[in-house]
Amino acid sequence: MGHWMALGMLVMPRLLLAQEDAASPDGRYTLPEQGDVVGQVQTVEATQEDTLIDIGLDHGIGYNAMRAANPDTRVWLPGEGTDVVLPTRYILPPGPREGIVVNLAELRLYYYPSVGHGEPPRVETYPIGIGRLDWQTPLGTTTVTHKLENPAWYPPQSIIKEKAEMGETLPSVVPPGPDNPLGEHAMLLGIPGYLIHGTNRPQGVGMRVSHGCIRMLPGDIEDLIYRVPKGTQVRLINEPVKIGWSPAGVLEVQSYPIPETSPEELATRVEKTFASVTQVANERGVLVDYARLQSLIVNADGIPHPVTLTVAPFEVPYHFYDQVALDPTLLSQLDASPMQLQKD
């Protein structure tokens, strides 16, 4: 919920909320010693009463991510015994692994908590809701400036006007309670008018539905707010395609669907991704399966997939470049070939 005013300063931490369960819940991982990937894709069996939304939120996955991973599954009635994919494997966002990182394209928040001496570094990841296309969440680097408990919401004139055009009347202030869209907890950001907050409509987490702020599930924000110090850095990025190495040294790509993408925008994303993946592959001398990579971008499912060829597709004699006019993409891949070219 963007452009806010709120009351109710958080006065003291709840120490019990800062304690982690003995068993790691979904979304909390030890950072790998090598590579950029955490977690594993899971499959669960739906019961008669389950909805796809409920299954996802029970495992820390938002609506859009569940739809992308299960495109052929009915949302409101998957059906008893239906296998449902949980996309709980993540390539970590690019950049420093510290503070909070929000990837808007992914609709997820990553938190890298400080750890004690001798403890392994960790990451926690949570589903979020973000701004609609006409109320986009801003990008940039900021900090957590204040933390609020039971905030009141003072809707700005822009939202009051929007609601009036829809035949709804908003009061000048919405007090804490079940009708407050900020939920029971909020973290104020250094970008004026924006916060990370809870919600009174948890089904909207994992969608682009807010007026620009970042929504979290009530239990997630309640747990997080008491452990995130004031001054924590928050990076707001928009990376629809993430690239990383698995702990086993396999190059993987994780792609997310972007709404209202024109053919020209999609072609540009494919071209940029080809260039980025080629550069990363060349650093380790591996070949990329470009047909698979293009399919992952066009048919994004939000799940990491390997994109490397296991073997070189053909032998390359030294005079090959003199005999064939190569496409630039293929040429760059030949430079990455692990084979040593032999002269006649």
From TrEMBL:
<feature type="active site" description="Nucleophile">
    <location>
        <position position="213"/>
    </location>
</feature>
<dbReference type="Pfam" id="PF03734">
    <property type="entry name" value="YkuD"/>
</dbReference>
<dbReference type="GO" id="GO:0071555">
    <property type="term" value="P:cell wall organization"/>
</dbReference>
<comment type="pathway">
    <text>Cell wall biogenesis; peptidoglycan biosynthesis.</text>
</comment>
<dbReference type="InterPro" id="IPR038063">
    <property type="entry name" value="Transpep_catalytic_dom"/>
</dbReference>
<protein>
    <submittedName>
        <fullName>L,D-transpeptidase ErfK/SrfK</fullName>
    </submittedName>
</protein>
<comment type="similarity">
    <text>Belongs to the YkuD family.</text>
</comment>
<dbReference type="GO" id="GO:0071972">
    <property type="term" value="F:peptidoglycan L,D-transpeptidase activity"/>
</dbReference>
<keyword id="KW-0378">Hydrolase</keyword>
<dbReference type="GO" id="GO:0018104">
    <property type="term" value="P:peptidoglycan-protein cross-linking"/>
</dbReference>
<dbReference type="InterPro" id="IPR005490">
    <property type="entry name" value="LD_TPept_cat_dom"/>
</dbReference>
<keyword id="KW-0573">Peptidoglycan synthesis</keyword>
<feature type="active site" description="Proton donor/acceptor">
    <location>
        <position position="197"/>
    </location>
</feature>
<feature type="domain" description="L,D-TPase catalytic">
    <location>
        <begin position="98"/>
        <end position="237"/>
    </location>
</feature>
<dbReference type="InterPro" id="IPR050979">
    <property type="entry name" value="LD-transpeptidase"/>
</dbReference>
<keyword id="KW-0133">Cell shape</keyword>
<keyword id="KW-0961">Cell wall biogenesis/degradation</keyword>
<dbReference type="GO" id="GO:0005576">
    <property type="term" value="C:extracellular region"/>
</dbReference>
<keyword id="KW-0328">Glycosyltransferase</keyword>
<keyword id="KW-0808">Transferase</keyword>
<dbReference type="GO" id="GO:0008360">
    <property type="term" value="P:regulation of cell shape"/>
</dbReference>
<dbReference type="GO" id="GO:0016757">
    <property type="term" value="F:glycosyltransferase activity"/>
</dbReference>
